[in-house]
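Render this sequence as a predicted structure.
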Amino acid sequence: MKFRWFNAPDNPFEVFPMSEQIDHARRQLMEQAQNGDREAFRALVKDIGPALTRFLRRRIADPHELEDACQETLLAIYESRHTYEPSRPLEPWIFAIARHVGANHFRRNWFRARWQELPNEMPDAGAEDSGNLLVECREALLQLPRIQREAFTMMKIQGLSLAEASALTGASVGTLKVRVHRAYESLRKSLLLG
């Protein structure tokens, strides 16, 4: 009998027994998926899906967020399948990806929640002032070059990760970072000086 280990927040040394046949079958499915066999990947997902859900449920309480994180994990596994080495155990590789996606999901939601905090008191400024600010922000955003506006909107307004925005735009992660930074600087100058 073979054991696979991974860290869990409530018990860092939790052990799951696994037979050699299961491990071998999963590795074969991953090898077939690496060669483009979609049915093999579907079978692998069906096999490991419940374990991934249990693993991520320990990190994400909201069921809707959990479903999103599971989908992101499966997508990350599919996109990274070429990095798996068939001579090595499959489960540590899969759960490392799941841990990474869960951590990114937590950070993204924490960042969003931090900015969505409600004030204790209503601001003194009238409603027309906040409307003007919204108009100014929209106008400043529209003044940006298209590629900067697109990158800023995807990452800072829609909350996409660098990898997700990169996949949608076809731009590299480094290029997107530069575009977002330049957009941020232009907006800051425009809103402070305008």
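Summary. The chain has two domains: 2-115, 127-193. Confidence is low (pLDDT under 50) at residues 1-17.
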